UniProtKB/TrEMBL annotation:
Pfam entry (one): Peripla_BP_4
PANTHER family for this protein: D-ALLOSE-BINDING PERIPLASMIC PROTEIN-RELATED
Protein name (database record): Substrate-binding domain-containing protein
First-listed, main subcellular location of the protein, grouped into a coarse class: other
UniProt keyword Signal, yes or no: yes
Amino acid sequence: MPEIPSRRGLLLGTAALGAGAFLTACTSNEPKESSGSTDNQAAAADDKPGKKVTIGFAGPQADHGWLNAINVNARERAKKYSDVTLDITEGSNDTAAQIGQIDTLINKKVDVLVILPADGKSMTQAGLKAMRAGIPVVNLDRVFANPQAYRCWVGGDNYGMGLNAGHYIGELLKDKKDAKVVELSGPDNLELTKQRTQGFDDALKNYPNIKKVARQQAEFTVETGQAKMAQILQAQKSFDAMWNHDDDQGVGALRAIDQAGRDDFVMVGGAGALSAMEAIQADNSVLKATVLYPPTMAASAIDLARALGQGKGVSGLAEHEIPTSLTLYSAVVTKDNVKEYLPTGFK
């Protein structure tokens, strides 16, 4: 098995902690020195109780570890603030049902809405309706088709996720002649899958010695991960590294790898499940890294919604308003830095 590169060896690094950590700093109430030209501290949200804000939260059904972590992060963040009331829906993967839940929150006249739509494009009208009713919307992850449907978007970087996975593997194999890699993707009918694959392929263009020899699409489930990984292993008798788009399906992939008795390659996961981080920490399997798609974005969305409801910006920025978009960084978690990220791992 190739030697695992250090953090310094990565082209893009893994030091960034993402928007969750950024906004924790942004909402702190520690005094900052004024530059003498612009002092926005009076207009910035902080941890001190302020105007009471009711935040409506509408997301899809938590039928996946990552989606459940979204709900957990939202609830836990809201509990941090004595001035925030969180009105959270049950969640649904049925577009019509979720639109109905959003209508209910609009009729309740919540102060701000945080929406992770089951389908961003088909639910754009729900965001527009809220905005036209005077309720600002924080659009979480799956973006609405019309920017007028939200005040702020916060989410992950699918392209960057693939790019960082590709650079990690590229640095690992850069000195190996005729290196081979495989990819276990998510469903190809999802735009996020296409973006993750594109980022991965673009990164590998920097390493002419590496060739992708196989790609299978799974469905973000343990069962499909196991079945598709078994097919790859049967067809490819040897390769050097693989990238798996999702840690949930990665559980199945690892089962197939164990059953085949293979340990001749390095596996890189995706999303940041706790099980993946624990396996990386134990260092007793082919899984050596995972590229984050942080569910902490839901906590950041609550921070932003609270600031919106209180008519404030975020400290650390000169502007008196929150930004219109915030893209989280896809950090690469390895044995070297896994302790930093374990608290964010989802079950």
